[in-house]
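residues and backbone:
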Amino acid sequence: MKLARLALAGAVASCSWAIACGDVVSQPIGAAGTAPTTDAGMDAPVHPDAGADSSADSSGFCSGQGPVPLPGTNACLGDLASVFRFAACACDALDVSGKLTTDSLDTPGEGGVAGGDLASIAANGEVSTNSTTNIGGSVWSGGASTQTGQAVTLRGGGTILHHVQAGGPVEVGGKYVVEGDVWSNGNVTLDTGAQLTVFGTVHVPAGDSATGVQGTVVNGPVQVALPCDCSSPIDVGAVVAAFATNNDDASIGITAGATLDGTVALQCGRYYVASMAGASVTLQVTNGRVALFVSGDVNVTQSLTVQLAPSAELDLFVAGNFAVMGSLAVGDANAAARTRLYVGGTTLTLSATATPLAANVYAPNATLQLAADLEMWGAIFAKTMQFSGAFTLHYDTSVLQLAQSGSCAPGGTTCKTCNDCGGATPACISGTCARCTTNADCCAPLVCLGGACVLGTQ
């Protein structure tokens, strides 16, 4: 499995450059290979020392002695974080019929208060909204295999703080303001009574039009790449299987065939179980980094709770399906980057009341359907997203720091796209992973700054 294909999920991050595991790495993805600055605060992903009660640690997982290799690959678990470049990314379609709001925690604050403008949404197919839509970032659509023929459909009304990047036509059925540019690989069409005000420039191909748009219209080539890396999704089952025997189960008295139920305390370490099921499950992550690998399903009927100690973080890999039918209380709204969930199955059910749901969720084979209102902190990556309730998403940008701090990506690695690269060499230039030189070298929506690929306003 190529390094880049593993760059598609959150990280069981590690401490590089031999910094203390209690420090917070404040480097962007692909930052220069110099010693990072640190921050003693608890509002960003931390890589803590396990302390005296840590489990057996033959791999260095808890001692913070560098990146943690992923068995059977040339990658480290820290290389998995770059999938969360968007607040929401769908391999097929992202359809929202209820109110949609996104913003970012550029500097996570008290109570998970957000307000930043780096929370972009994307789909390789169509992005469609049908109610009030306020995007604290950009809207990206590859326009692939859309049922309506549109790459972006905006109904209701609202504001997009940066750009619209559409690999096909754009249809507007409400009153919208785009504070950046619009790139549309086809006509921009306004329905009767609709209004589109663009502060920047509207770009459409020669022969296409943007009639009625309030803004400057320019005809010329428009090319929008597929924003979500879905061509070779991570085989989550294979990642889980790699830890079937390489784990710390014995240190807390569980077996590989165990089903977790009730309240389970997990200290720093890697644990492998068969399933997680029952009426109520509570995971108490007491210290350090915890990686929990589930070879089957998660099926909880009443409540799932994940409690993080102030210095703890959790990566939960589920090879099968994930379903919670009751209440959810997962993670820390002040630091959503410290909880990452990867689901390999086709079912991702969150029919629960979330108080809060603070996690970065990767489920490339699953359709996420939400009928009720949901407020979420973190990011989500799924095959298809269908939201009929109001959805508010606060994107914790610090999750991308993990791609630097836990990466073992070497420069010079052979690549086909920027998705094959990571760490200090995030760009694919002439078939080789290297530092970026232009924005085009970086995976969307990142921009190139001093050789690093960072969140920006591309």
Notes: The two ends are 30 Å apart (CA to CA).
